[in-house]
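Shift notes (night). Ran Peptide/nickel transport system substrate-binding protein while the centrifuge was going.
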Amino acid sequence: MQKKLWSLMLFTIVLVLAACTDDSDVDEAAEGDSETAAGGGDLVIGMINEAVSLDPHVSNDIPSAQLRTQIFDTLVEQNVDMEFGEGLATSFEQDDDQWTLQLKEDVTFHNGSDFTAEDVEATLDRVMDPSVGSSVAFMFEMINDIEIVNDHEIVFTTDYPFTPLPSHLAHNTAGILSKEVIDEDYQNALNEAGSDVTLEEYYELREEGGDEFEAVSEEIGSHVGAIISEKPDGTGHLKLQERIPGNEIVLEKFEDFHGGDREFNTVTYRVIPENSARLAELETGGIGVTDNVDTEAMDRVRDHEETDIIDQDGLSMTYVAFNYEKEPFDDENVRKAISHAIDREQIISGVLNDRGLHAKNHISPSVFAHNADMEEVPFDLELAKDYMAESSVPDGFDTVIWTSDSEQNRDIALIIQESLSELGINVEIEQYEHGAFLEMANQGDHDMFMLQWITVTGDPNYGLYPMFHTDSVGSGNRWNYSNPELDSYLEEGQQTSGDEERIAAYATAQEILMEDLPITPLYYGELGIGVNNTLVEGVGLDPVGIVRIENVTFPE
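Came back to this:
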């Protein structure tokens, strides 16, 4: 067995990564708002969408991650360049399928309790608890045993050697909660459900599993999370002060933060859905930062004397999905014909205002092990027609493409519709509200749909295994695709520790995917946030799309 000691203070693995997601007369910002934004340590950030939940285990959306990143610390930290560093764990030692973590001492939760290994165990037990029903449980389910050695040492045992574990433990949904608030939340759920099971009995039942636990789990499921949503208890540099649903969330500086001083006193996240309203607030000083700038407004923000854009390559890949088992999309000639008929450059220049990169394969250049040697999918109508002539439907066919209800998605779908008409493929566009669209896509009844995947950990395992491994059919693998050869390379990349071996495995996996084309990649995302430089300095943007504020200062 080869032993690998990873001191997170000395981590040199760099994941070159990137990331995610959406106008109007506007009153000028009130004078008081401008003074608040600039007033000595009070930062206001404009958000296009409201956070779904401050509970790390309830949602996996970027607006929620913006706030949770400030409230909760993770065991592993990733900086704005996505380099690993010390989080609540100061070191890892990997020995095959075991990971030994040394935990940071003298760390305090917002509620005043001390951080120990019990909080780590309680957090991971909770995210994998079926009562919680977490959509991110898959990120941690390979951990099959947790052993507390002492207050500041803990050992994880995984089902198999799982090399990407540090990147999963750096994800915002891996934020560590206090055991006190977890216990309080479960007790509240038991009380609300009218259960006669005690908290200790519940934990024992969960450990044992079986019918009795399943019955209690179903009974309390709708009540779990109520307390944590109201008072999220982390060790981060900010803690919750106030939440006004639909309007704003105010976080305040945590005076006992273990990671050094911060310049801000409060950080307010204001929900301003309209692009033009957010832009006006940025220019007049109502907000210091906006988490999203419409591509058409980029030049306006850059040219304004008080505002600028912070650019970042993203981790996202936007694609068109096919139903791999449904005629005629079970024919690789049809999939290849469609892939070559789509003019990606027209999409990038005509719809995205050049805020995107032509996709070569299924993970972006910012993700570790991206295969840069592959060629872009060329727009070639003659080649597309040749593939159609060899297909089971040489004269074309009628089909439907689903997309969510943004103007940008509609415009991209119109380009695809026009392109495919050259092949005799008559495409009907159906748009749905985003939540309804995702629910429909998950059912696997589509012809085609357009969506985006963000490799938020920066590791190719997250970008490829949930989307294309046979075991993921019915979840992230919405196109019913299965290839045993691909599975073997994805498993090799997941379980091999050497960088060169992982790069080789994932390079082959990407080649297989571009040959099979269960989905065809369109473009990689580019990110940009707006900043008012007269109000705030030191703002960063990471490839996930999180506004980084740890180095924020305020101009005199």
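The CA atoms of residues 262 and 550 lie 7 Å apart. The longest helix spans residues 499-516.
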